[in-house]
Amino acid sequence: MKILSIDVGIKNLAFCLFEKPNDSEHFKITKWDTVNISEQESFKCFFIEKNVLCNKAAKYKKNGECFCLKHSKKQPFQIPSSEQKPTFINKQKIQNLYEIANKHLITYENKIKKLDLANLINEHISTNYFQCIEHTNASDVKLLDIGLNIKLHFDNLFSQEESINYVIIENQISPIATRMKTIQGMLVQYFVMSQVFVDNIEFISASNKLKDCNIKQKTKYSERKKIGISKCLETISSDFRFNEHLHYFNSHKKKDDLSDSFLQGLWFINDRKI
């Protein structure tokens, strides 16, 4: 029995795959993470420390490798500021370029042309500095690109799953969330057309995941997020089925989205008595 719970997002689409083996009465988590469907590639830190891959979100890249802020400081390359980018360098007047070149101890001919000096500086920066990883603004991403990225990421994540009994997706309220409603439909279409056999796809009200919290008064969105994190932390700390994921959860940057996908899936399991 497999249940895939999805919390819809663009920068942080969260998923939690629950699985109950045939020889067990208990569900366990086999996949739990967030994915950025605004981009084709997810940049993760490559640094390995004590035989453990960092895998945190990367901020810089160099020579095909990516690093988070912490581990970039352990590399022989420098972290660039806004003044160490070609877009800045190429706009500078010749006198400013002289000052930049002298600051970086770059040797040049006395009567060098502005373009040649700018190229020297850019070459120095390219050799000695990291390249910043630029991220796309989620609101600027075309729906076509989002659809292509869903297929790319989900193929990597779920193509090895022969079948999934239930895919449950948090229902997006239209017209308030028209764009998210469209993405919800794209997710359904992915599983309809994918090689993974899916028995059922259901839309779940966002209110269900916090039903066990006995919230009696009206709460703000940010407050519900905090309640969700607390409930998730309490559950994975005390429930033997999930407590192996405690360290992973505590070290994840998007605890709120992880919590949403987990609590939605757990509510579904309990509600359906699966």
From TrEMBL:
Q: What is this protein called?
A: Mitochondrial resolvase Ydc2 catalytic domain-containing protein
Pfam families, A to Z: Ydc2-catalyt (PF09159)
Q: Which InterPro entries match?
A: RNaseH-like_sf, RNaseH_sf, Ydc2_cat
Taxonomic lineage is: unclassified sequences, metagenomes, organismal metagenomes
Mitochondrial resolvase Ydc2 catalytic domain segment(s):
3-71
Native organism: viral metagenome
Signal peptide residue numbers: none
MF terms per GO, please? Answer: nucleic acid binding
